[in-house]
Amino acid sequence: MQPTSIGIIGCGNISGIYLENLGKKFPGVRVRGCADLDLERARKRAETVPGARAMRVAELLADPEIGLVVNLTIPGAHYAVACQAIDAGKHVYSEKPLTTTRDEGAALLARAKARGVRVGNAPDTFLGGAFQTCRKLMDDGAIGAPVACTAFMMSRGHEHWHPDPEFYYKPGGGPLFDMGPYYLTALVSLLGPVKRVASCTRMTFPERVISSEPKKGTRIRVEVPTHVAGTLEFVNGAIGTLIMTFDLRGGSNLRNIEVHGTEGTLNVPDPNGFGGPVEIRKAGESDWSPAPPTHGYLENWRGVGPADMAAAIRTGRPHRASGELAFHVLDIMSALHESSDRGHHIVLTSSCARPAPLPVRLADGQLD
User: Fold this and answer.
1) Most exposed residue of 36, 60, 233, 316, measured as fewest CB within 10 angstroms of its CB?
2) Bond from prior residue into 97 cis (ω within 30 degrees of 0)
3) Euclidean distance between CA atoms 57 and 74, whole angstroms
């Protein structure tokens, strides 16, 4: 089969790794065009990929050869750009989160269904080798039936390193909407969908000062909660404890993710990456044991999600980083904010299937 032609919209900070991987490492796709409101930025990105060229957004959407749009715009633009791609008859894969509100997310999926195109969404880190190893261990019953999990993202915020961090403190940002998709997608892949949530949130610093270049000294008015503490009840009965914060000023020894079962505990690495150490401790054992990886994709393989989506479109199977999965994660995050505002549990109305695991021992760049 001919490779799927991809167009990239949004040539900011994250686009570099997508272009490196989609443009050079997956034989099933080729990057045809790069578009951005800043055409010069699009030109610079297109120059890094053989066969790609800079385009204006309208030109990219009108190109009949481009079948899949990868939407790497800021969160507040995800919905509008994805709708434009869908209206142009193209499949669309967006960076996280799916949209900034549930209503937009539901409307986006309905629009795609009506046009007969697919929606995919980041993160795709749960397809990394470390997380697929954890998935296999879970599915094989290595720790027994799931009982509980913990997920901790402890950060001081992005204004200290990101070149343009304002959007992290606007609607669609904050620690939950920025980093929560990595953690929650990994947990849903391992444990299945969530039934209800409860939380408390706060905004510790109403103003932030950028200390990174080129906007050093710029003040940001914070508009979203920057510390979220939540409880998740999964459909399978497991109970999760979650902390997402941009308010850390000291250190932390909390692990990223642990999953506790009736027969042991699984230590899951940072879900913002693809690899990392996986450890297991069985009931009655006094020490942790390393679990060797059963899968590839252990380095930074951002782009495996849209590459898997392209392969799924060609063969007719479901793609793994799906819009339905992303909408359920969006629903969880929205409900966590609402729970704190309303002071009670929020029962979710969405659900999703656990995405299919990757086959073991796939070579990097290969997809089933």
Assistant:
1) 316
2) yes
3) 15
DSSP secondary structure string for all residues of 111-170:
HHHHHT--EEES--GGGSHHHHHHHHHHHTTTT-SEEEEEEEEE---STTT-SS-GGGGS
**Average per-residue pLDDT for the chain:** 97
- Name which of 318, 92, 320 is nearest 189 in CA terms: 320
Q: Which residues contact 256 (CB under 8 A, 6 or more apart)?
A: 151, 152, 153, 183, 268, 269, 270, 271
Contact at 8 Å (CB) between 71 and 82? Answer: yes
Q: In this predicted structure, what is the pLDDT of residue 1?
A: 73
Residue type, 226: T
Contact present, 257 and 131 (Cβ < 8 Å) = no
Backbone CA torsion sign across 335, 306, 171, 272? positive
How does DSSP assign 34-88, residue by residue? EE-SSHHHHHHHHTTSTT-EEE-HHHHHH-TT--EEEE-S-HHHHHHHHHHHHHT
Polymer length in residues for the chain: 368
- Copy the structure tokens of residue 213: 């270049």
43: Cβ–Cβ under 8 A, 6 or more apart, which residues?
Answer: 34, 54
pLDDT in tens, 128-161: 999 999 999 999 999 999 999 999 999 999 999 9
Structural domains of the chain sorted by starting position, each given as residue range(s) with its CATH number in brackets: 4-125+301-321 (3.40.50.720), 129-288 (3.30.360.10)
Rg (CA), the chain: 20
Q: Residue 41's closest CA among 16, 23, 60? A: 16
